[in-house]
Amino acid sequence: MERTFRVIDHRCCWKTVTLVLFWLVGQTDRAGFAEEVGGIAGSQPSVPACSETIPPTTPTLPRRWTWESVEMAAPLRIVCYHPDEQLAKNAITKAVERIRELNAVFSDYDATSEVRRLCETAGSGKKVEVSEDLWQLLALSLRMSQQTEGAFDVTVGPLMRLWRRARMSKEMPPAWRFEEAKQAVGYQLVRMDPATRTVELLRPGMRLDFGAVAKGYAIDAALLVLRNQGITSALVDLGGDIGLGEPPPDRPTWKVAVAPLEQEQSPSVFVYRNCCGIATSGDRYRFVVIDGQRYSHIVDPRTGIGITEQSEVTVIAPNATLADVLATAVTVLGPEKGLAWIDTMPDVAALCLRLENGQTQVLSSARWPELSGSSGNTH
User: Considering Cα of 203, then 205, then 211, then 217, what sign does the dihedral take?
Assistant: First the structure.
């Protein structure tokens, strides 16, 4: 039996995303796993030409295993296929442990996280040796910051804190607060020394925010753990950001539906893909209305102001890390400039839904039909 599993609003602390997933669902056991016999049944062997009939043998079939928990303040769901129960459970356990390990690196809410400890040294002149995970993701984030000329900026933390308080109080912070926060924002204020793998934050009050990329990175890390344990057919969904491995044994691809901009509408756009990342950046649930103006939780680091255009951007990329960061960047850049930028990248596509005069406008990059697998796909 097939049913839909909707990832509409996980109330995650970093970014609300809106995807709808379609897959077969098994029965959950006490350990938090679920199994279901899946795949293609082996063909019956022919009976040998002899007087004694040999009973046919049944090959070991892949079984479906799922895990559900809350990690990085967002719902986590892992779906994978493998015939060996103990191997599958051990692999999933290690994948979840890896995600928790990364949360201890990137969490903006945990005062003991590695990134928070780094931010405490901002403006002190101290160079801090960082872990390989923090180094790699910071390097990628700075490259994206440079390419977007600050439309995506990993140092946006001070502005994000202002808007969190604004959403709670429903009051616009005073102008001087914005100016103060903007003084501590700027990817140019981060110094990385490859020789010593150290990072220096040059200005007091700087705060790194990996909310637009850390979940994607954790998804890719979890998929890598599963692959290293011998599981290639897998899906990892963390707060709606998705990483896909090889498809289920009885299907040619995974099927992912992009949720419409309007809540009452049914999904009409689907992605049929394997071995890629899919991420959506949107503000259907996380926004604030102040003096009649709607402001998204997604902030433009260049202006310090929350995005005022209601939109949703879905990106398909070779991995979830890249899909995650690009979805936010295109949201800030806007569909015209953002989609043109996406078209310069190989193996990347984006779809933008924008509310204009009460109507949903659909815009896409040139490679969306091809990379989404939607052309001529009806399964």
Answer: positive
What domains sit in the chain, N to C, each tagged with a CATH number? 114-201 (1.10.3980.10), 253-378 (3.10.520.10)
User: Tokens representing 242?
Assistant: 């998705």
The residues facing 295 across adjacent strands are 288
Euclidean distance between CA atoms 314 and 21, whole angstroms: 14
Which residue do the tokens 């490259």 mark?
143
Model pTM score: 0.84
CA distances to 29, 78, 177 from 71, rounded to whole Å, are 20, 12, 32
Q: Strand runs (DSSP E) across the chain, as ranges?
A: 2-7, 19-24, 27-28, 33-37, 63-71, 74-82, 128-129, 190-193, 198-201, 234-238, 241-244, 254-258, 269-273, 276-282, 287-290, 293-296, 311-317, 349-356, 359-364
Cβ(150)–Cβ(159) below 8 Å: no
pLDDT tens, 56-99? 444 578 999 999 999 999 999 999 999 999 999 999 999 999 99
User: Which residues lie across from 362 on neighbouring strands?
Assistant: 353
Identity at 95, one-letter amino acid code: A
